[in-house]
Amino acid sequence: MGYVAVKGGTKAIEASIERLKYERLKDEEILEVNTILATMKAMIDQVMSESSLYSPYLAALAIKQAEGSMEEAVFLMRAHRSTLPRLYYSQTVEAESMLVERRISASFKDIPGGQLLGATRDYTHRLLDFQLIDEDQSDNEQWLRDYKDKLAATRAQNEVQYFPKVVDYLREEGLFEKYEKNNTDPDDITKQSLQFPASRSAKLQVLTRGQTGAVTSLGYASLRGYGQVHPNVGEVRVGNLPIYVAHPNEMEQDEENEFYIGEIRVTEVESFVPVTVKNEQNESELEFEIGYGICYGQNETKAIAMSILDQCLEHPEAEFPTHDEEFVLLHIDSVESTGFISHLKLPHYVTFQSKLDSVRQVKGGDKDEN
Amino acid sequence: MKRRRRTEILIQSDSSLARSFAEMITQNHECQEIVAPQYGLTMIKMRESAKNSLFYIGEVLVTEAKVEINNQIGIGIVVGMQDELAKHLAIIDAAYKANLPEVEEWNPQLQRAEQQIMSRRAKEQADLFETKVNFETMDV
Q1: B131 contact A CB<8A
Q2: What confidence score (pLDDT) does residue A356 get?
Q3: What is the arrangement of strands in the sheet containing A115-116, beginning at the earlier edge strand?
Q4: pLDDT higher for A370 or B86?
Q5: In chain A, which residues have their Cβ closer than 8 Å to the Cβ of B4?
Q6: Average pLDDT in the A86-90 region?
Q7: Contact state of A117 with B131 under an 8 Å Cβ cutoff
Q8: Does any CB of chain B come closer than 8 Å to the CB of residue A180?
Q9: Residue A107, Cβ density class (10 Å: 0-12 exposed, 13-18 middle, ≥19 buried)
Q10: Residue A2 pLDDT > 70
Q11: Interval A135-176: pLDDT, tens
């Protein structure tokens, strides 16, 4: 599509930006970045995930600047990301190293290591809590003291426990196919634009940074019949993953001499999807495959929806939109979709004028004939 | 102590430990700043557990610093915006690379700090275990 430049409006634009600031400041309340950081964790997680940049502090700043608009906050983070140099690539992160804080299975009630609810809203009443209107700092401090006193009695084991993957046990039983470690370098859609058919690594990269609402909607569409994947959630886990980086110059590849640089918090999901396959006797058999989902922070709905879409895209089916990789991957990016929709607000005078001229010509022609 | 273990201890424990080690070095040795603490990105490579392949989950903001001591370059990298800690980590890294005598004294302190980190984590995990659930299926 060709664009035609327009000019003018400098003073109005300056006044508009001033007005924007006025709208943010007029009620004379200041929201501290640290307050957002401490109290808006779900929003921060969502912004980090969709912007593909893990930095809780910057996400809180973006939310403040964007006045809570998710699309604007993600846009700000993506823009900021583009100003920073990529200094390192991490060593491969293996999810078994996760320090788990929540781990549940909807498929098996007795999973090895047990189920851990952690912090979840799943079992809360969805009723407005009017007490929060008059929340008091001293009351909160008292509650925290009482809670910590209650926990003081808990006895810790000598070592931290790491949880095995549910799917590993099922693989040992021969219920799932075993795959050797594939160490092929992944594609990077931030360095090279998406090509179709997309590699598995590119698909997962696009899905994990997809807009939460879009990923959820398309995953939901698959469940409702616009796709053919309806999984059982095998395992949802939330926790911290340690990140290691190799020395940039040392020739010796010694794992023990890597840098530990910190950790990131993620949600990871493995969904079990029944598929029908033909056996050696050409008979139909039921098997299970795994749909994989992961995203920054705690966002279980998105990670589950991603695991559905992962399976959909592994099995292309022309009749279902959620199995079409171009349809899914090109429409779930926050900046791409909101940017393209919102560009419609900007001046399109020449393109519209040419369409108007065509319509007038047709209408005028009709009049002449009458 | 090798880098992986010591960087984990220094980053996970109170930042005063890294500061005290770094100050000990800068008081006794000439330390030249090669790269002042700067913000950058580290791309995270993940292994997915469906087909055991690799993909990029996204980037993490890091602070990086480089210093030189006795012709040895030390690097400090840490997640987040942590200028001071990145610089201290770089100084400690250079001290280890240069085999400075001070590093000999650090092992016991690092081991104690590691023990504290492990105890803290184990206690946090025990607290979380209060939310362990045992669902039972009901006959209907």
Answers
A1: yes
A2: 86
A3: A284-296, A259-278, A232-245, A99-104, A115-116, B132-133
A4: B86
A5: 244, 255-260
A6: 97
A7: yes
A8: yes
A9: middle
A10: no
A11: 999 999 999 999 999 998 888 888 899 999 988 888 888 888
- Say whether B2 and A254 touch across the interface (CB within 8 A): yes
Q: What is the 3-state secondary structure (H, E, C) of chain B?
A: CCHHHHHHHHHHCCHHHHHHHHHHHHHHCCCEEEEEEEEEEEEEEEECCCCCCEEEEEEEEEEEEEEEECCEEEEEEEECCCHHHHHHHHHHHHHHHCCCCCHHHHHHHHHHHHHHHHHHHHHHHHHHHHHEECCCCCCC
- What DSSP designation does A4 have? -
Nearest chain B alpha carbon to A165 = B49
Give me the residue from B43, B77, B134 closest to A259, CB to CB: B77
Predicted pLDDT of residue B45: 98
Query: Cβ separation of A182 and B51 shorter than 8 Å?
Result: yes
- Residue whose token pair is 């045992």: B134
* Confidence grade of residue A369 (pLDDT, cut at 50, 70, 90): low
Token duo for residue B67: 């210093």
Q: Are strands B132-133 and A232-245 parallel, antiparallel or unpaired?
A: unpaired
Q: Kindly report the average pLDDT of chain B as a whole number.
A: 95
- Asked if B50 lies within 8 A of A310 by C-beta distance, the reply is yes
Q: What is the pLDDT of residue A78?
A: 97
Distance CA A154, CA A110 (A): 23
Q: Is this prediction's ipTM beyond 0.90? A: yes
The three-state secondary structure class of A84 is coil
What are the pLDDT digits (tens) for B40-56? 999 999 999 999 999 99
Among all residues of chain A, which has the CA nearest to that of B47?
A94
Cα(A368)–Cα(A361) distance, integer angstroms = 11
**Residue B117: which of B2, B10, B16, B3 has the closest Cα?**
B10
Residues in chain B with CB shorter than 8 Å from the CB of A94 are 47
| pTM for this entry | 0.94
Contacts of A154 (CB under 8 A, 6+ apart): B123, B126, B127, B129, B130
Q: Which residue of B has its CA nearest to A266?
A: B57
pLDDT score recorded for residue A366: 60
